[in-house]
Amino acid sequence: MSFLQLKDTELYYEVHGRGQPIVFLSETACDGEVWKIHQVEEFSRDHQVILHDYRGTGRSGKPSIDYSTKMFCDDAAALIDHLGAKKAIVIGHSMGGRIAQLLALEYPDKVDKLVLASTGAAFPATKGLPLKICQEMIEWGYEKYVRDHSILVGFTDEFTKQYPERVEKYLQVRMANLCPVEFYLRHLIARQSHDTTGRLKDIRVPTLILVGEDDRNVTSDINHRSSSEILAQGIPNSKLVVLSGERHSYFFVNPAAAHRTIREFIKSS
Predict the structure, then answer these.
(1) Taking a C-beta distance cutoff of 8 angstroms, is the pair 19, 46 a contact?
(2) pLDDT tens across 206-262, in order?
(3) Which tens digits make up the pLDDT trace of 74-89?
(4) Which end of the chain is more exposed for a tag (fewer CB within 10 A), N or C?
(5) Which 8-state DSSP code applies to residue 210?
(6) Which domains are present in the chain?
(7) Is residue 261 within 8 Å of residue 241, measured between CB atoms?
(8) CB-count exposure of residue 235 (10 Å: 0-12, 13-18, 19+)
(9) Could you give the 3-state DSSP secondary structure of residue 62?
(10) What φ, ψ does residue 110 adopt, rounded to 5°?
């Protein structure tokens, strides 16, 4: 097990394979284990795949301080430096895509290409903890909320009915080391406070924006499908790809399509 010691915490990380580095950044309050379901096997064949657990999640340290996407960005940059992973391809899913934007803006020398998967630049109307999330978490309980919300947002009803074992496989990994509720909430606050709206024009690396056509569930004030359109309009020379029939978790529902799209982007850009 490998840890990077930072000034105020430690980050757990893993490296798989060799080649141009690919840094995977997970969704809100999610550790790096989910990428080992499909992505590590696929991309470690010809890339150095780098995973880590955000502070507050998984095996990383859990300091009880205010978090921000800039803090997560700085942590990831420190890990890239530690590993000497120059000119990385950065793939960020959901909140990870917000961190990925900041990496390209704050540390452009570290980023070669950018994949922004089901993410956005800001939540214009909802800063702080969204009321809907708080209500559901109180009514359902924390673990049930994360589990049920993952199904609702990530998987279509048809897929859930047809492939319950695949949904359960994902949930087993997602829930295996669920962070304490304090840190889930700290991640939520960090996510909701993120705003790169006025800086999208300054992202200069080749950028793929990936989203599911049916990724329209709303926990606050804007859905990922609409947010992706805003990113595509704001980032110069970016490419938007909409995956038909998919919601939020296409990396685990339809990995072949996601991988093919990413590989085509890496090859062509």
Answers:
(1) yes
(2) 999 999 999 988 776 789 999 999 999 999 999 999 999 999 999 999 999 999 999
(3) 999 999 999 999 999 9
(4) N
(5) E
(6) 2-268 (3.40.50.1820)
(7) yes
(8) buried
(9) coil
(10) -90, -15
